[in-house]
Amino acid sequence: MDMMKMKVNDETQTDLVNLRRTIYLTITLTLDFEEAGHKLMKIKLNPGGQEEMQLCIIIIECCIQNKAYLPYYALLAQRFCMINKIHRQNFEKCFVRHYSMVHRLKTSELINSARFFTHLLAFDALPWHVLAYLRLTEEDSTSSSRIFIKFLFQDLCEHLGLRRLNERLSDPKMKDAFESIFPRDSMRNTRFSINFFTAIGLGSITENLREWYWVRERRKRDSDSEEEFERRGSESDDKRRKRRRCC
């Protein structure tokens, strides 16, 4: 019985390797993304299983392994996202998984992957709530994750334009999804986010955050001034009492 199970497992792994090879060769040996998509759709994949996820993973792997970014792979991914919501959900999972491992990537791979996912976001092939997985604070980000976020937002600005990007980021319905990128949980984290986007030339997308920051900063200063005024007043009262006692 154990030998039979081992045999089944070995065969399943072999099938997966063969499937990956077929998908890889189909993608890399086809020049047009529409033709590649047509060929890939003819490959029988078990619905809801690992095979569908492998399709998404291989498309991303092919994209990031190139020395220069090629839109071909993002266009292919976009096609699958638009055809079937399962592929869209799988690419969303890939985004989360990929971001968690950006520290392992080379700079060229970081840039390619950021531009790949930018394309999917810009054309609404991926839902924008995936940005909730990005955490832009000094403690929660690394140099690699900041490079990824930098190219992601710079490319979004190129695709959409600054005005449309601001409109998307200011959508009240998406407020919760963007809180981790434009944090308001502490003044320090807010300041870090503002400085980051200013440094990469996108300071204007933090206008709402800046306004919130300065309102809080003024309140803090006013509160500190009142406390200082009360403290000095209390000290003056103490001095008067001491003088009266001496007299």
Structural features, described:
This protein has eleven helices and no strands. With 247 residues, it is mainly alpha-helical. The protein has helices at 2-28, 33-41, 50-64, 71-83, 85-100, 107-122, 143-160, 162-169, 175-178, 187-199, 207-246. The longest helix is centred in the C-terminal third of the chain and has 40 residues, at 207-246.
Q: Tell me the total number of β-strands.
A: 0
Q: What percent of the residues sit in helical stretches (DSSP H or I)? A: over 70%
Number of helices: 11
- The H/E string reads HHHHHHHHHHH
Extract low-pLDDT stretches.
1-11
Mean pLDDT: 87
For the largest beta-sheet, the strand count, sense and barrel status come to:
none
Oligomer: single chain
Shape: elongated
Termini separation comes to 104 Å
Category from helices, strands and their pairing: mainly alpha
How big is the Rg? Answer: 27 Å
Give the DSSP E fraction (strand runs of 2 or more residues): under 5%
List keywords for this structure.
247 residues; mainly alpha; elongated
Layout of strands and helices, then pairs:
Elements (H helix, E strand, L loop, with lengths): L1 H27 L4 H9 L8 H15 L6 H13 L1 H16 L6 H16 L20 H18 L1 H8 L5 H4 L8 H13 L7 H40 L1
Helix pairs in contact: 1-3, 2-4, 3-4, 3-5, 4-5, 4-6, 6-7, 7-8, 10-11
Task: Write a compact overview of the structure shown.
With 247 residues, the chain is mostly helical.
